[in-house]
Design brief:
The complex is a heterodimer of chains A (102) and B (84). Helices cover 50% and strands 17% of the residues of chain A. Chain A has five helices and four strands; from the N terminus they run H-E-H-E-H-E-E-H-H. Chain A has a four-stranded mixed sheet, sandwiched between helices. In chain A, helix 2 (30-41) links the parallel strand 1 (16-20) and strand 2. Chain B has helices at residues 4-14, 44-55, 73-83, and strands at residues 19-23, 29-35, 65-71. A three-stranded mixed sheet of chain B has the order 1-2-3. In chain B, 40% of the residues lie in helices and 23% in strands. The chains are: A alpha+beta (102), B alpha+beta (84). The A-B interface holds A 30-31, 66-69, 79-85, 88 and B 44-45, 48-49, 52, 59-60, 65-69.
Amino acid sequence: MTTNARIKKLIDDNKVLLFMKGNPTFPQCGFSSVACQALRALDASFETFDVLQDPEIREGIKVFSNWPTIPQLYIHGEFIGGADIIRELYESGELAKAISKE
Amino acid sequence: MLQAIEIQKIIEANLNCNFIKVNGDDGTHFEAVIVSDVFAGQSIIKQHQQVYSALGNMMQSEIHALSIKTYTPDEWSQKNNIKG
């Protein structure tokens, strides 16, 4: 499977998916940590993908989303943004809305 | 060491900014506040993508972390009215 196809499958298979460095218990970067905290504060169930374990996805997701940094959040297959946007949407209440939307 | 002002100049040169301020003094972590007419009507994602695009491949190399806040001129004046 190509890297793009793998990414596509990941975001199709997971309603809320955070591409991050490390995992929610041990985030390896402050920005990934912020993203996890926002999702946890909403009591949202979410999956994470540790890009440090997979160099192909780590580079591929940047091209796929046209976004040069990690973390990256996908909800219902849609690219939501990186840490700054996740924080903004969390504060405005829009992140909760996006997650609860079926 | 990479200076905040260098990042600011590069963004300014490639993006039409009404106001821009880049802070950060450790050479790797920076924060940018950018106000631009071009952001009007755009999603936040698109706004940030334009800032990244103005920086070219610096995001892949020199800049470890850049926090971005974007505003249209209207949003910016509203924000400052509330605060002021």
